[in-house]
């Protein structure tokens, strides 16, 4: 099964992933794969404003992130529909939400769907979890993370408060319409342990279908 954890920068995705892996057996994979993927590395350079005007194009950036995921398409396909759990820190919904927020054009959501699930053949997730963390709280976490770790300096997306707010709203709308499959929405300040148990209950229910 593919379970993706979604949310804006600083939403708490890594914290939830740790809580889940303490309770269930699951492989973990985080996107973008900055350490292994040339496409992710180019996207990172663009977000540091080192690639000319590349970052100005939401479609160009979305394509780089999509190609990063395509680099492990066989691993993703192998996990889809099986009892083993592959836990993802961001997946295709992240591309849809950020692209929508950047362009403010809803048609880009279908474009991302067609590109990643269609042209690139990525499997749809079995469950998507949205951490609906308040933008201010997420921004404070991202700032503290950057201060504590020089390698996690905030990029062009993270420093744009308006973009983060629009992305948060885009995520909510994707979840409300069950975009690309089933969703669980974690409410602000929901206890991570309780959320983890809620997700596990849903996973078990889906396995029994």
TrEMBL record:
Catalytic activity line of the entry: dTMP + ATP = dTDP + ADP
The entry's keywords: ATP-binding, Kinase, Nucleotide biosynthesis, Nucleotide-binding, Transferase
Pfam family, one: Thymidylate_kin
The keyword Iron is annotated on this UniProt entry: no
Gene3D superfamilies for this protein: P-loop containing nucleotide triphosphate hydrolases (3.40.50.300)
Gene name as annotated: tmk
Function: Phosphorylation of dTMP to form dTDP in both de novo and salvage pathways of dTTP synthesis.
GO molecular function, one term: ATP binding
Family, similarity comment: Belongs to the thymidylate kinase family.
Gene Ontology process terms (BP): dTDP biosynthetic process; dTTP biosynthetic process; dUDP biosynthetic process
Name by which UniProt lists this protein: Thymidylate kinase
Top-tier EC class: transferase
EC number, as in UniProt: 2.7.4.9
Limits of the Thymidylate kinase-like domain: 5-153
Entries under NCBIfam families matching the protein: PRK07933.1
Gene Ontology cellular component annotations, sorted alphabetically: cytosol
UniProt cross-references to InterPro entries, sorted A to Z: P-loop_NTPase (IPR027417), Thymidylate_kin-like_dom (IPR039430), Thymidylate_kin_CS (IPR018095), Thymidylate_kinase (IPR018094)
Origin species: Corynebacterium kalinowskii
